[in-house]
Amino acid sequence: MHSKKIWGAVIAIFVLILPNFGLAQTILSLTTSKQSVDFTLEQLQTLPQTTVVTANDYVEPSAVFQGPLLRTVLEALEIDKDAELKMIALNDFTSTVPASDAFDYDVIMAVLRDGERMTVRNKGPIWVIYPMDDNPELRSDIYNDRLVWQLKEIAVE
């Protein structure tokens, strides 16, 4: 547990303090009432990565997705399990997701699919992925609506 807090602090420092130097493009913004944090693909890829092998209503058969756990980012920014997350896609599609999903399941912000970066055309650069194959209770329309692809922003409510 202690090492989890240290990692959270390290991630928070990395995300909030290190300069971007304008070399990489922001692909995700996370906003709360107290702060706004931007992430580049490179920053997301430096976070600990998790692999989820799963199918969903949009991918059949199973694919291999990789990216940071949503929970890791929420913990680093001290976002509570009871918060609501408004996920916003590039086309302004929105889905409200309880933050508890990220704490109860290994929900990832996938940046790779089958080892390749996802383009906008292929639901990238970020696709919120739930581990549906490992958790049959996630195979429902409720959770399919939370599989936001082309994610650009998370607004914490």
Report on the structure:
The chain is α+β, with helices and mostly antiparallel strands. It has a single domain, classed as Oxidoreductase, molybdopterin-binding domain (Sulfite Oxidase, Chain A, domain 2). Helix content is 24%, strand content 36%. The protein contains five helices and eleven strands. The strands form three sheets. The protein has a five-stranded mixed beta sheet with strand order 2-1-11-5-6. The chain has a four-stranded antiparallel beta sheet with strand order 3-4-8-9. Strands 7-10 form a two-stranded antiparallel sheet. A hairpin with a 4-residue loop joins strand 1 and strand 2. Helix 1 packs across helix 3. It is globular, with a radius of gyration of 15 Å. The two termini are 27 Å apart. 34% of the residues are buried. The mean pLDDT is 90.
Keywords:
alpha+beta; 4-stranded antiparallel beta sheet
Question: In terms of topology, how is this protein built?
Answer:
Elements: H1 2-17, E1 26-31, E2 36-40, H2 41-46, E3 49-56, E4 59-68, H3 70-76, E5 84-89, E6 94-98, H4 100-104, E7 108-110, E8 112-113, E9 116-117, E10 127-129, H5 141-144, E11 151-156
Parallel strand pairs: 1-11
Antiparallel strand pairs: 1-2, 3-4, 4-8, 5-6, 5-11, 7-10, 8-9
